[in-house]
Amino acid sequence: MSAEPPHRSHEPAGAAGAAGAAGSGGAAGQPIRRLAGDPPSPWEGEFAYSRVVSAGPWVLVGGTTSIDQTGYVVGTTPYEQAAEIFRKLLHELSRVGLTAAEVVQTRMYVTDISRGGEVGRAHGEVFGGVEGGGPVTSMVEVGRLIDPRMLVEIELVAYRA
Hints:
- By secondary structure, the protein is of the alpha+beta class.
- The protein has helices at 13-22, 44-47, 78-95, 116-127, and strands spanning 32-35, 52-55, 58-64, 103-110, 136-141, 152-159.
- Helix 3 packs parallel to helix 4 (116-127).
- It is globular, with a radius of gyration of 17 Å.
- The N and C termini lie far apart (35 Å).
């Protein structure tokens, strides 16, 4: 008997994996939809990533900071930056027809965990009213983010029922 869980695929990445990676197929043959940010961050084109990826019922919104399209970082405190980030995240979700109620996971990266309560407060303002409770979440301290003015970065996963 194999110790490996049965859900793992032994198919080479060049077979079925290549179609999903290329964006031609998702769960049950649904296309994978990739969207740039609205507005895009200064790095999306250079680093070749999408802000939002919708694959079957899953919607992932990549790491988001409070930077605007001109390079200005909105907010000087963790709370101000987190509030701006959540505003941006909810806007991105609205582009694919979702709200905070469909968010199942958030990940918050902070440069000073001693001020994590400020970020948690912004999280609570967004998800505190969600029926049945908010998403699962993690908050992790990191050494720094891509721009030294940034104090917070947040990503999320939503589920379209």
